[in-house]
Design goal:
The protein is mostly beta strands. The chain has a single domain, classed as Methylamine Dehydrogenase, Chain H, CATH 2.130.10. The chain is built from no helices and 30 strands. It has strands at residues 34-36, 39-40, 50-55, 71-76, 82-87, 93-98, 102-113, 120-129, 135-140, 146-151, 156-160, 177-181, 188-194, 199-204, 209-213, 222-224, 233-239, 242-250, 255-259, 265-268, 284-289, 293-298, 304-309, 315-320, 326-331, 335-340, 345-351, 361-366, 373-377, 381-385. The strands form seven sheets. Strands 2-1-3-21-22-23 form a six-stranded mixed β-sheet, with no helix packed on it. The protein is globular, with a radius of gyration of 19 Å. The two termini are 20 Å apart. One of its GO terms (cellular component) is dendrite. It comes from Labrus bergylta (ballan wrasse). WD repeats lie at residues 75-116, 128-160, 181-222, 308-349. GO terms for molecular function: armadillo repeat domain binding; calmodulin binding; protein phosphatase 2A binding; protein-containing complex binding. Residues 1-32 are annotated as: Disordered.
């Protein structure tokens, strides 16, 4: 089903829950990560939940990425829900992070015939083991040589990325673990890598956002919201048009832009105002929320410029294609939807995952340079589409 969702349009005739029901599991996944360009981050939060996506300026190449996506691979190896995933910047490689305490790396060109069908299967080529609990977030450096993961144990693990042609039956290589970033005292919900400064940003249930040197395991270079005046951050990302600023969402529904040098809040995004016009060539922040809405904000004024009902259940994840033309959203209604960012219309919808404990899709991602998209599910599966 395709949808053309405009301001104020209602899907009430489809009878979704008017107020999303509380998830039965205590550590639950909802909309509440931040994404710049094509890097998404993820989290577990309590209500209210919000996910922020800072998109690139909308481009002029309207034919870029225009295609119909079809399922290609189902990645089976995790024993519990997959909370996050990230693509290698240039290789056909995917890394998944799971509640089973591990991360797995997959080479999408290393396929074998599936046992019970005519399709191809992919096995993980490497399993990362260091976390003492569920792994909630993962991000890769822009060179692809480093990988970082955050977990319920409050740690950030720093990894060397294995060679994509590694033999999956080789013995475990402890040298892949570069070290551990310590400082957070609660679950690390989101991670984002800054290529401009080779820095890592993290946000945690301990109430802080921290800035790290991605090349060392030294203590954090800076701590934001240390006094917790703004609440508990649920997600964080860089403003793509200005790497000197970061954007953070909080579990109380606030969204703020911060100056990385002064650590001060410079702008609050206001969702309680009526939508207004979007200035031309203005960078935007896109939020996906548990009330089924996706909202768009102007980063210069902080005002909301568009709001739409996008799914039949909580919207949990967002990704923007590398050209800044299309938005992908995932939801606990089991569907992935592709949107034209300029017209705000749905151009494709498909069902990707089954529900488990009232949860379904935890994360979605575009490959930065190849025609792959992927989704992570509570059903312990990752799906790849081409």
């Amino acid at each position: 089903m395709l949808a053309n969702l405009r301001d104020g349009e209602d899907l009430s005739h489809m009878q979704p829950p008017s107020t999303p029901q509380s998830r039965p599991n205590a550590a639950r996944r909802g909309g509440g990560g931040v994404l710049t360009g094509n890097i998404s981050v993820h989290l577990l939060v309590s209500s209210p939940k919000i996910k922020v996506c800072v998109s690139p300026q909308i481009g002029n190449n309207k034919d870029a990425m225009r295609k119909t996506w079809n399922p290609k691979f189902t990645l089976r190896s995790h024993f519990d829900g997959i909370r996050a995933l990230t693509f290698h910047p240039v290789e056909p490689v995917l890394v998944t992070a799971s509640e089973d305490h591990t991360l797995k790396m997959w080479n999408l060109q290393k396929t074998a015939p599936a046992k019970k069908s005519t399709s191809l299967d992919v096995e993980p080529i490497y399993t990362f083991r260091a976390h003492r609990g569920a792994v909630l977030s993962v991000v890769m450096s822009t060179s692809g040589e480093q990988c970082f993961s955050g977990g319920v144990d409050g740690t950030i693990q720093c990894w060397n990325t294995p060679n994509p042609n590694i033999d999956p039956y080789d013995s475990y290589d402890a040298s892949m673990l570069r070290g551990e970033l310590c400082g957070h005292t609660d679950s690390v919900w989101g991670l984002v890598y800054s290529s401009a400064h080779q820095r890592l940003l993290s946000c945690s249930a301990d109430g802080t956002v921290r800035l790290w040197d991605a090349n060392t395991t030294s203590p954090a270079l800076a701590v934001f919201n240390e006094d917790k005046n703004l609440g508990v951050p649920s997600s964080v990302d860089l403003v793509c048009s200005d790497p000197a600023h970061l954007v953070t969402s909080f579990t109380n529904g606030q969204i703020g832009l911060f100056n990385m040098e002064t650590r001060q809040l410079v702008l609050s995004l206001e969702s309680n105002l009526e939508p207004g016009p979007q200035p031309p060539d203005s960078p935007i922040t896109i939020t996906a929320q548990e009330d089924r809405h996706i909202k768009f904000f102007d980063n210069n004024s902080g005002k909301m410029i568009h709001s739409m009902v996008a799914h039949l259940d909580a919207v949990t994840s967002l990704a923007v294609d590398p050209n800044g033309l299309y938005l992908m959203s995932g939801s606990h209604d089991c569907s992935i939807r592709l949107w034209n960012l300029e017209s705000k219309t749905c151009i494709q919808e498909f069902t990707a995952h089954r529900k488990k404990s009232e949860e379904s899709i935890h994360d979605v991602a575009f490959h930065p340079s190849k025609c792959y998209i992927a989704s992570a599910g509570a059903d312990a599966l990752a799906k790849v589409f081409v």
